[in-house]
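ugh ok fine here u go
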Amino acid sequence: MADNKLISDKKLNEFGKDYVKILYRLLRKKDKVATGALINSLNHTIREDANQILIQIEANDYLKWVDEGRRPGTYPPIRPLVEWTQVRGINPGVAYAIQKSIYKFGIKPTNVIQETITEIESSPTLQRKYEDEVVDNLIKMINNDFNLKQ
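structure:
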């Protein structure tokens, strides 16, 4: 291993796909799919610099509100609410009442991002999928450092 990586780009890409797949499933389970725009926006990218590897999860910006919810006291934008009512077959005029309700009561968080992380951390299958390569590559690095036969 000339580049001294603990995990290959292929496995990093698989991890990103696994993360997106779990997040997608949890959003569907929590019935957070109206137009499909959010779940269809889910993707990942891998960025490396000299000090770290980042797996960045990409999604429409309102994933933040779906995940964290919204506290009472601020009006959400009306256009997404109108689109949501149209997709659900509700009179678009109801969007203003929904906006006022959100202002008054907020929106309950789903915590799908933390649940995705928890599922990955607690999955023996996913743990094994990635740890084997990391351990093998670590042993190769140690052996190379000490000029031992592999």
